[in-house]
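Researcher: Please translate sequence to structure tokens.
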Amino acid sequence: EVQLVESGGGLVQPGGSLTLSCAASGFALEEYAMTWVRQAPGKALEWVSAINWNGDSTYYAESIQGRFTISRDNAKNTVYLQMNSLKSEDTAVYYCNAVKWTVNFWGQGTQVTVSS
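Model: Translation complete:
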């Protein structure tokens, strides 16, 4: 069974940090590019970051550039999103997504709330 399970979300104060994890099982993670996507309350899905199959190439949305870092450990079947200098506008459900050609797998999401 294919699974992507996000974890690491929670409540954090503005300026704080969180690291999200996305644990993959049931498929060969190393064959897939991975993305993080988020959805704030009442808003559309927003692409946040992407990483290629071996981690050599990373991409970021302008809104989080310089604050978030995506990484992966294929040996551990896990992808990470390190989030620093968090702002209230980063509050959202964060989803990880595995992509290979037309194949997409999604996790169930993890809530991140940035509030004082």
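Researcher: Any highlights?
Model: The chain has a mean pLDDT of 97.
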